[in-house]
From TrEMBL:
Pfam families: NBD_C, SBD_N. Residues 256-413 form the Four-carbon acid sugar kinase nucleotide binding domain. Catalyzes the ATP-dependent phosphorylation of 3-oxo-tetronate to 3-oxo-tetronate 4-phosphate. This is 3-oxo-tetronate kinase. Residues 3-228 form the Four-carbon acid sugar kinase N-terminal domain. It comes from the Bacteria. SUPFAM superfamilies: YgbK-like. InterPro entries: 4-carb_acid_sugar_kinase_N, 4-carb_acid_sugar_kinase_N_sf, NBD_C, NBD_C_sf, OtnK. Belongs to the four-carbon acid sugar kinase family. GO terms for molecular function: ATP binding; kinase activity. Its EC number is 2.7.1.217. The lineage of its organism: Bacteria, Pseudomonadati, Pseudomonadota, Alphaproteobacteria, Hyphomicrobiales. It is an enzyme of class 2 (transferase). It catalyses: 3-dehydro-D-erythronate + ATP = 3-dehydro-4-O-phospho-D-erythronate + ADP + H(+); 3-dehydro-L-erythronate + ATP = 3-dehydro-4-O-phospho-L-erythronate + ADP + H(+).
Length: 421
């Protein structure tokens, strides 16, 4: 193994796995903290997906260190800590505490923090994160239920989370190339260990950053920071030249879409699919809580409709409706109720012959993948930036497209399924 990736959520892990696969690495994604290095598969890069983004910081640190040790034990030469391209975190963590703990474990004086992902509109300029044309703090992320992002200055945001010094490697330096960029990180760490928030507006900047970290033990960032890493290994003679994409064969069978994300992009995608004539079933959290709606109701509706044309089961709702369910049931209880329902529906659909499934939402995907007994995913072709098709390597025999809430174009669902034929 060349590269070991520790990702703080499932769909974020799939995102970075796609980035590496597109750059010619053989990538496997595992689900959950590995028991040890012997449980990890052989590949150029192994991406360990956890569910640690919003857990208590101490737990996120413990899991990340366990993942790091397992990856190092399996031969990883470099570790990448992958978090969200919108830097989802709070003043308590978990980006700062995990980065700090990994620096200490790996014995590094400096590392990078860069969530830029230009293909999805995330850019960093003078340490400020933009989502499209908006500052992070003006974007819908300001109202995120768990990690509201109300400060766009990542140097400030990260400094509140860590004892390690946080500095800036600005655009003008990155533009000068890998050598100047590397010198800037070294200079920042001259007096004390330092995390440098790096500006990056284009893929070219991300490739320069990657090159600046050739041979270094640790990077942190969104999936974009992985862009230049495979070429480093190639230049060092450790990785084959980039070949044609590996063939991807989804098992033949029935198709379904499950959406538990209420993010703006998913709301648009659900509306688009319904408008395009996809038969759909809406889940009402209150009806589930009161026992008026069970997985059997949904499966009785779905089973006779299953075939080559997809069906859609969704809890996706507008913010007011989500708030109203949360007020009545509690935020976590409402989420757990819906996740459990979608997970059980997924199990029933697979028993009824579904072999191609699109799932929208990181938490939702975690619940579904867990219920299907999948602990390892092979990475297939890109559907939209940051979202690949994957093939379950164990558990259910199924192709899965696990979509981050905010990713994908309006026609994502139908586009994803059409790609398989
Ligand atoms: N109608 C609803 N009312 C209340 N909670 C809901 C409703 N629909 C879904 N949920 C819950 O909201 C959460 C959505 O999180 P999820 O991670 O799946 O989507 P996301 O946040 O859009 O995606 P990502 O994490 O990839 O950005 C889940 O816990 C889900 O069960
Ligand atoms: O980086 C992103 O935006 C995604 O991969 C993600 O982590 C969504 O949860």
């Amino acid at each position: 193994m060349l590269l070991g990736v520790i990702a703080d959520d499932l769909t974020g892990a799939t995102d970075v796995a796609l980035m590496l696969a597109r750059e010619g690495m053989r990538v496997v994604q595992t689900v959950g903290v590995p028991a040890g290095s012997e449980s990890l598969p052989e590949a150029d890069a192994v991406v360990v997906s956890m569910k640690s983004r919003t857990n208590p910081a101490a737990e996120a640190v413990e899991w990340s260190l366990a993942a790091c040790d397992a990856l190092l034990g399996a031969g990883a030469r470099q570790i990448l800590f992958k978090y969200c391209s919108t830097f989802d975190s709070t003043d308590e963590g978990n980006i700062g505490p995990v980065a700090e703990a990994l620096m200490e474990r790996l014995g590094v004086r400096w590392t990078v923090a860069c969530p830029a992902f230009p293909a999805n509109g995330r850019s960093v300029y003078q340490g400020h994160l933009f989502v499209g044309a908006q500052l992070l703090s003006d974007s819908p992320m300001k109202d995120h239920p768990l990690t509201p992002m109300r400060d766009s200055n990542l140097v400030r945001v990260l400094q509140r989370q860590t004892q390690v010094k946080v500095g800036l490697v600005p655009f003008a330096t990155v533009e000068q190339g890998a050598a100047a960029t590397r010198r800037a990180f070294e200079a920042l760490a001259a007096d004390a260990p330092c995390i440098g928030v790096a500006d990056a507006i284009t893929d070219g900047h991300l490739r320069i950053l990657g090159e600046a970290f050739a041979g270094e033990k640790l990077l942190t960032g969104g999936s974009g920071i992985a862009l230049g890493l495979p070429d480093n290994f190639r230049r060092a003679g450790l990785l084959e030249p980039k070949g044609p994409p590996r063939p991807f064969h989804a098992p033949a069978g029935k198709t379904a879409i499950l959406a538990g994300s209420c993010s703006a992009a998913t709301r648009g995608q659900v509306a688009h699919a319904i408008h395009a004539g996809v038969e759909s079933f809406a889940l009402d959290p209150l009806a589930i809580a009161e026992g008026r709606l069970t997985p059997d109701h949904v499966l009785n509706w779905a089973t006779p409709r299953l075939g080559a044309r997809p069906i859609l089961v969704y809890s996706t709702a507008e913010p007011e409706s989500v708030r109203s369910a949360q007020d009545k049931l509690g935020r976590d209880a409402a989420g757990a109720l819906v996740e459990r329902m979608l997970a059980e529906v997924a199990q029933g659909l697979v028993s009824a012959g579904v072999t191609r499934m699109v799932v929208a939402g990181g938490e939702t995907s975690g619940a579904v993948v867990g219920a299907l007994g999948v602990s390892m995913l092979e990475i297939g072709p890109e559907i939209d930036p940051g979202v690949p098709w994957t093939l379950a390597a164990d558990g259910a025999h199924i192709a899965l497209a696990l979509k981050s809430g905010n990713f994908g174009g309006p026609d994502f669902f139908t586009k994803a399924l059409a790609m398989l034929d």
